[in-house]
Amino acid sequence: MKARIHPPTRSNLRRLAAELRRGGLVAIPTETVYGLAAHALDAKACRAIFRAKGRPANDPLIVHLLDLTHAEELAEFNDAARRVARRFWPGPLTIVLPKKPCVPGIVTSGGPTVALRAPAHPLARQLLALAKVPLAAPSANPFSYISPTTAAHVQQGLGKRIRHILDGGSCTVGVESTVLDLTHSTKPRILRPGAITAAQLEKVLKRKVATQNRSVKSKAVLLAPGMLERHYSPRTPLRLTTRPVAARQTALIFLRQPAGKQPANVYWLSQRGALEEIARNLYRVLREADAGGYRAIQLEKLPTTAGGLAAALNDRMKRAASR
Q1: What gap in Å lies between CA 259 and CA 207, rounded to an integer?
Q2: Would you list the domain boundaries of the chain?
Q3: Cut 0.85: pTM above it
Q4: Residue 231, pLDDT score
Q5: Between the CA of residue 176 and those of 6, 117, 226, 279, 280, what are the distances in Å?
Q6: What pLDDT, on a 0 to 100 scale, did the predictor assign at position 220?
Q7: According to the 3-state scheme, what is the secondary structure of 77-140?
């Protein structure tokens, strides 16, 4: 039976919250991408996430909650972590900290740390408030495939593996959260770039924030999701290029809309090349090109001089194109 997409009515939210409390799975909208949610303190429910996604056990889950007060019930916070949480939560920032014993090992892949986030999407927050439990929620897609930014994307990928999808429209950010490791408060480092940039974090922390640029091999134990070399990938072979060039049976994806009328194999991520619009559209356009029956996809990459959100976009593009 195909997963049902539920409109965000009050009665549906109450029904889905009850489903989560009793150990069920529900795909939920966040401002970044759709997540496949389960009761984070229920090990059996969290194992069901791994089965539904085909996710390897060494790839930990992000736990979603309402606020800092709830987060401190699950992890050992330091002053630096409290400062960034107060500044950027709710929002697209995940913080990695030493976990408390109540967090099941399946959530952290057996590691001593847990990744925590307070989402900003109003429906995610309503569901958290109604469920009254923290929610583990990786992206709601088959493992390593392109992340979903609409309810229809979730249904296309996991429609035969789960029963419930909450429709919250299109995601406003479009790429996964920034993951910040604050296990050692004096050595902050970004494990996965996102909409919250290193420069923004440095203003709050008053110190340099390092970025881990090295990918992790598939069998390594991960501190946080999104660190594997290949991720967010279409099934069609993808190549990054400074300028897509016409080739037989190839989809061409440009950063900005080309001038004039274009053939059906030409796609673009933004009318004028705005980074926020590129981020919102990246996964949707990759999915459209992947469904087009092409032998290959060429994707125009961002220049290395582009700042801010470009770091997150370049990271996702590089992992999507990895062989």
Answers
A1: 44
A2: 4-211, 238-321
A3: yes
A4: 82
A5: 23, 11, 8, 10, 11
A6: 63
A7: CCHHHHHHHHHHCCCCEEEEEEECCCCCCCCCCCCCEEEEECCCCHHHHHHHHHHCCCEECCEC
| CA–CA separation, 8 and 62 (whole Å) | 23
Least confident of 8-17, 133-142, 174-183, 299-308: 299-308
CATH fold group of domain 4-211: DHBP synthase (3.90.870)
As a whole number of angstroms, the distance between CA 274 and CA 278 comes to 6
Beta bridge partners of 116: 63, 95
The identity of residue 245, as a single letter, is: V
Order of strands across the sheet that contains 35-39: 4-6, 164-166, 26-28, 35-39, 135-136, 62-64, 113-117, 93-98, 178-181, 189-192, 210-211
Report the distance separating Cα 309 and Cα 314, nearest Å. 9
CA distances in angstroms from 284 to 48, 117, 152, 262, listed in the order given: 26, 24, 11, 19
